[in-house]
């Protein structure tokens, strides 16, 4: 895979790499996707699992991820109504990216003074 | 690589994955790193190569990447002085992440209405 091509296309036609990076470079995006890799989750579960996120941010991120067909949202007519979030196939296809990020993170720990 | 471990650690001790994601989830970060994968570059070259970035943002991003030892900055006592940026080994180690993002982007194009 020649990354060189990417460099030239960065400035001209729409660039899939740039679009993908825009999508996954949200502060919370990959953490949400990472959590959903293990299966369906409800809103409150997700809110507890993604360190530092608040309700407003989670609502916004989930809406964006749903609009980009990375996750899907299922509502159940229980009393009270319940909603579950899960990854679409497109979302699950991000697993290799997450695994490479995790490998890089473990092999290249940031020193305390770099945080 | 079990991503499940990550989920539990998301909320407790410092999490290498979360730190790595914070590092690489800057809007321009991975585009800058992607461009430097092909070799040393000067400021103006980088500014031209990263679509949409302006001088102030590039200065800020480069400072942060240098402080996190992802890139290194070399100044040359030419007239006028010149500065070159290149990836450290830690920066080059992000290549597999970039390749997986690129693969995902090519296999999962965002529809026009999702941009």
Automatic annotation (TrEMBL), chains A, B:
It comes from Chitinophaga terrae. It holds the Pfam family HxlR. Signal peptide: none annotated. This is Transcriptional regulator, HxlR family. GO terms for molecular function: DNA binding. PROSITE patterns: HTH_HXLR. It comes from the Bacteria. Residues 15-113 form the HTH hxlR-type domain. PANTHER family: HTH-TYPE TRANSCRIPTIONAL REGULATOR YODB, TRANSCRIPTIONAL REGULATOR, MARR FAMILY. The keyword Transcription regulation applies. Keywords: DNA-binding, Transcription, Transcription regulation. Transmembrane segments: none annotated.
């Amino acid at each position: 895979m020649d990354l060189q091509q990417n460099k030239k296309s960065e400035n001209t036609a729409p660039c899939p790499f740039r679009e993908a990076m825009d999508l996954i470079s949200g502060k919370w995006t990959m953490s949400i996707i990472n959590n959903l890799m293990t299966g369906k989750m409800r809103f409150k579960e997700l809110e507890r699992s993604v360190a530092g996120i608040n309700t407003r941010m989670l609502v916004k991120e989930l809406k964006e991820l749903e609009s980009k067909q990375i996750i899907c949202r299922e509502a159940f007519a229980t009393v009270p109504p319940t909603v579950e979030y899960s990854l679409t196939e497109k979302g699950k296809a991000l697993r290799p990216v997450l695994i490479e990020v995790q490998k890089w993170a473990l092999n290249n720990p940031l020193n305390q003074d770099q945080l």
